[in-house]
Write a structure and sequence with these properties.
Blueprint lengths: L2 H9 L5 E3 H7 L5 H13 L3 E5 L2 E4 L10 H8 L4 E2 L1 H7 L10 E5 L4 E5 L2 E7 L9 E5 L5 E5 L1 H11 L11 H6 L4 H4 L7 H7 L3 H14 L3
Parallel strand pairs: 5-7
Antiparallel strand pairs: 1-3, 2-3, 4-5, 6-7, 8-9
Helix pairs in contact: 5-6, 6-10, 9-10
Amino acid sequence: MKLLTEKVFRLAPPGGLFNETVVTNLYPDRSKGARELLLDRAIKAGEILRIKRGLYVLAPEYRKSEPPPFTIAALLYSPSHISLETALAYHRLIPEAVYQVASVTTRRRHVFETPLGVFSYHCVPCQNPAAGVEGVELHQSFWAFVATPLRAIADLLYLNRAITWQKDGPGFLTNSLRIEDEDLRGISFDRCGEIVRAFRSRRVKHFLEEMQREYAHD
């Protein structure tokens, strides 16, 4: 085991995740170049995996726990929140397995292909990016920001600009997304007004308002 790997292993960072600051604290007297050399040697040995520059994770055999994908998504690109099909799958509203962690951001679109999976970020301009987004505790003190079902649908609507209530109506939800009608009636609309106000798109606003009329409890 490389010396750096051994030192990080002893720290036992949750999920095996660590960044350059950890390496600097472990070797405060070494130059930046020397620390990078230690990292490169451990990476070439397969003991440490580079997620992106400055963000690393111990190889599986050296981890004491697995890093949650949602936490990795937050660390890779911020500000962002888990949304779209990934959030709908998390809320158990769609049957498909989601093989890519999809997030929404107000920054430019980006995709990271990492040793721990593919993470995509889609730009959704929003006056209040936190509208309809909740902090979710995963496990072992890991947290992530995840879209509520209604916010995830709003984000999908924004990105699928051909979808309108007049043309597609509930079919976008039940046929395209394959959400069960019963599950749609179980969605909370408590934050619908907040989400509607956050979006500039009249098309998205209208769809959400009609959806509320169709599915909200009396």
